Amino acid sequence: MNVHAGRRSSDVKSWRMILGIHVANIEWGEAITILKRKLDDNRFTKISFLNAHNANIACVDEAFADALNDFVILPDGIGVDIASKLLYGAPFPSNLNGTDFIPAFLKASARPLTVGLIGATRRNADEAARKLAALAEQHSFAVIHDGYFAPKDEPEILERIRILRPDILLVAMGVPRQELWIARNLTKQHCILPIAVGALLDFLSGSVPRAPGWMRTLRLEWLFRLIIEPRRLWRRYIVGNPLFLARALHQKFFGVREER
């Protein structure tokens, strides 16, 4: 693996370290320009996002943290903005959460692209592909497989990806599985931009509702998700958010190691 290739990407001029993970300090339009340039130059680059939940996992999962060092990491959510204000005196320039950023990026990319989708249920992936095709008609979208497969199925799935070789591969398997799967399996022979997108396909399909616009404006989408899925998400938000902030305070006053 090309260690630290992600955070040393020559396109990104400024980084902020959040709990040992280097996050691109860029605004919305710059992020779109950088990803377009990587596609135009055919530069294999892994993309993921850091939010409070991912950062907490990276603190206790060394394999996940090491994998993230080979991704370009974009800032996602109010948690990392609060941490950035604590550590650097200002939030990130833009909230580049994948649920909003990826559809916007695809719509803004005029050159026709092939986009592969893998993950979620097959029904949700198919519906997400239809929604994206309507949003960005210039691109071709192909569902490769759902996210429920055994290791014995991987060679066939990887061969399908290699034959298609999409410009972009949206990988929706949840954290940390999706990033580890990308890190362990995908190379420039498979695609140009593999992007770990979490629940994006579920949101696009409509199977998981998004918060009303006013809640998103107030940066309260996490609260909406907690209200509609309390059993599944209470630990992530009720326990995880304060833990993340405590870890950010620890970084501020005691620092963290630059390398893992």
Automatic annotation (TrEMBL):
InterPro entries assigned to the protein according to its UniProt record, in alphabetical order: WecG_TagA_CpsF
GO MF annotation terms: hexosyltransferase activity
Superkingdom of origin organism: Bacteria
Any Pfam family: Glyco_tran_WecG
Key word Methyltransferase present: no
Keywords annotated in UniProt: Glycosyltransferase, Transferase
Name the record gives this protein: WecB/TagA/CpsF family glycosyltransferase
Originating species: Mesorhizobium zhangyense
